[in-house]
Structures are given as C-alpha cells and as structure tokens.
C-alpha cells in the first residue's frame, strides 16, 4: 500500500470511529474507506459497526462491507447477524452482505455462511428472517445459473451487488406489476421484479414501483420490500418518485427501515422540494429517521441528480 493511500485510510478510519465527529462527516469517511476497499479498511469499518450506538451508521457499515467484495469481512458479518442484541436493521444489512459475499468464499466458509443464514430463518425479527431467505435464494440462484442467464441479467448501468437479479427473460410492465401485487409470489421473485423495473430506468417503471409502495404501505410484513424500493429510488434519482417517497417518510406506521431508506433516496434526488420536505424530519421521533434526514441533506451537494451522470 502506498504511503498516500495508507494516510488516507488512517485519516478516514479515525474519523469514522470518532463519535464526537458529526455524523455526516463520518459517513463521508465511511465511503472513502469503501472506495479504498482493502482488508485494512474492514478493521476500521467493523470497529465502527460494533462499538457505535448509531444504528444508521452501523447498518451503513454492513452495507459497505457487502459491496466491497472482500471475503475477510465474512466472520465479522456473521458475528453481527447472529447477535440478537444488535438492532434488526444492522443485522439485516449483515445478512444481505453475506448473500453478496458467499460466492467468493472457499467451500468451508461458504458452508458456514449457508448454515448461519439457514439458522436465522426463524429469527424473531421478520426483517432478519426475510433477508436471510433472500440471501439463501440468491446463493442458490448463483450456484445454478448458466452463462447465458448470467449475461442476460447483467446491467451495466448499476454496479451495486443486489439482493436478487433481475429476470433474465423480458417481462412486460404488467407482468412485473402482477408479480409484485401477488401476495402468493415469493419475496425472491418480487425482488427480481423490483430490479427488472429499476433497470428499465424509465417513468413507467418508477410509477410501478411507486404503486407498489402505496399498495403495501400498511402491511408490516412488507417493510423490507418497501425499504428496497426506497433504495432503488435513491439509485434512479427520478423526481417522479418524490410523491411516493414522501408518502412513506411521513407515515409513522411504516417501520423506520423503510422510512429511513426513502429519506436517503429523497436526499439523492436533491431538488428544492425534496430538501424542504427533509428539513421537516430533522426532529422526527425515530432517531434513524432524523439522522437519515441529516445525512441526506448533507449529501444533496454530493449526490444531487443534477450532478450525476446517470
């Protein structure tokens, strides 16, 4: 590692674990470490994830570990996932990260990951149990996919590691909506439909995703799905999603995992309307929501859609 990179790593790491630093500054440090993506960054990120009391920061640490593609993170992710004293939002993110990293593991470690995920299917938190089921379904799909399907689901527009692939075969908007609205369809297939709509990257897809948000808004078994749509809206940065995001953020009945993700998505869009709305939630009853509003407002200068080449 070059001295300049090592200095950058040390500086960002110290900021990340310093609870006296503003949360927005610590988030910037976290994403600096994510972009460096070395085994040394894992130590800093894990330290923040295990000792900090901000669930928002903890869960973002888990997300980054799942996106970096480093198997050295797996033992740390397992430790958090199985620790029922940890917040369910953080544990969910670790379960999803394990689904991303399992395909990179040696056989023995992969078997351990599969066993851990299987054991958490009966977790008392539906967020955790659903996440682990999604990860198991993703790993099973990866183990059986052929080269043709793998090529068909690839989408160069989005580089993230997602909890499910889009459908390989071309489906109409109506078919995807039908899968999403069908309460008998599996969560894995619903997620595949979500990412198929995301990859369309057009207004019709945005409104289909928005209708799904509204449809399940009062169903507490679908909070994980709601949060994933919020995440996708944050990737798309389409102003057409603003009314749907506002609806979830303002709903106190929705789980904070969904409200927080929609809050961050609104910050990614970064219009004046979005900013004005976010400012109303800086004093929300839920700390995860108000911290998300704080970070989202800070990030508007960095991730405003006016500045993104998407």
Automatic annotation (TrEMBL):
It holds the Pfam family HEAT_2. It comes from the Eukaryota. It is an enzyme of class 1 (oxidoreductase). Pathway: Protein modification; eIF5A hypusination. GO terms for molecular function: deoxyhypusine monooxygenase activity; metal ion binding. Fe cation 2 binds at residues 227-228, 260-261. Its cofactor is Fe(2+). Catalyzes the hydroxylation of the N(6)-(4-aminobutyl)-L-lysine intermediate to form hypusine, an essential post-translational modification only found in mature eIF-5A factor. Binds 2 Fe(2+) ions per subunit. Its EC number is 1.14.99.29. The gene is 107359333. The lineage of its organism: Eukaryota, Metazoa, Ecdysozoa, Arthropoda, Chelicerata. It comes from Tetranychus urticae. Keywords: Hypusine biosynthesis, Iron, Metal-binding, Monooxygenase, Oxidoreductase, Repeat. PANTHER family: DEOXYHYPUSINE HYDROXYLASE (PTHR12697:SF5), PBS LYASE HEAT-LIKE PROTEIN (PTHR12697). The keyword Iron applies. Transmembrane segments: none annotated. Signal peptide: none annotated. This is Deoxyhypusine hydroxylase. Fe cation 1 binds at residues 59-60, 92-93.
């Amino acid at each position: 590692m070059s001295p300049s990179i090592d200095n950058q790593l040390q500086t960002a790491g110290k900021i990340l674990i310093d609870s006296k630093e503003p949360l927005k500054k610590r988030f910037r440090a976290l994403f600096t470490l994510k972009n460096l993506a070395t085994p040394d960054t894992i130590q800093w990120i894990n330290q923040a994830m295990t000792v900090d009391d901000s669930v928002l920061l903890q869960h973002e640490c888990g997300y980054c570990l799942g996106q970096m593609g480093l198997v050295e993170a797996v033992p740390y992710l397992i430790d958090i996932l199985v620790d029922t004293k940890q917040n369910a939002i953080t544990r969910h993110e670790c379960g999803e990260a394990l689904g991303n990293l399992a395909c990179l593991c040696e056989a023995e470690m992969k078997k351990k990951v599969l066993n851990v995920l299987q054991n958490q299917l009966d977790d008392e938190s539906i967020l955790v149990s659903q996440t682990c089921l999604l990860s198991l379904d993703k790993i099973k799909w990866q183990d059986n996919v052929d080269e043709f399907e793998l090529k068909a689901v690839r989408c160069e527009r989005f580089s993230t590691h997602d909890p499910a692939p889009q459908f390989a075969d071309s489906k109409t908007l109506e078919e995807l909506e039908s899968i999403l609205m069908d309460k008998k369809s599996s969560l894995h297939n619903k997620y595949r439909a979500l990412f198929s709509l995301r990859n369309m990257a057009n207004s019709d897809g945005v409104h289909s995703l928005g209708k799904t948000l509204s449809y399940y808004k009062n169903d507490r078994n679908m909070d994980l799905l709601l949060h994933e749509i919020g995440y996708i809206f944050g990737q798309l940065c389409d102003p057409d999603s603003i009314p749907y995001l506002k609806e979830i953020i303002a709903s106190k009945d929705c789980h904070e995992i969904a409200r927080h993700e929609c809050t961050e998505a609104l910050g990614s869009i970064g219009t004046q309307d979005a900013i004005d709305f976010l400012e109303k939630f800086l004093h929300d009853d839920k700390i995860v929501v108000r911290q998300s509003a704080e970070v989202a407002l800070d990030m508007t200068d960095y991730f405003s859609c006016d500045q993104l080449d998407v």
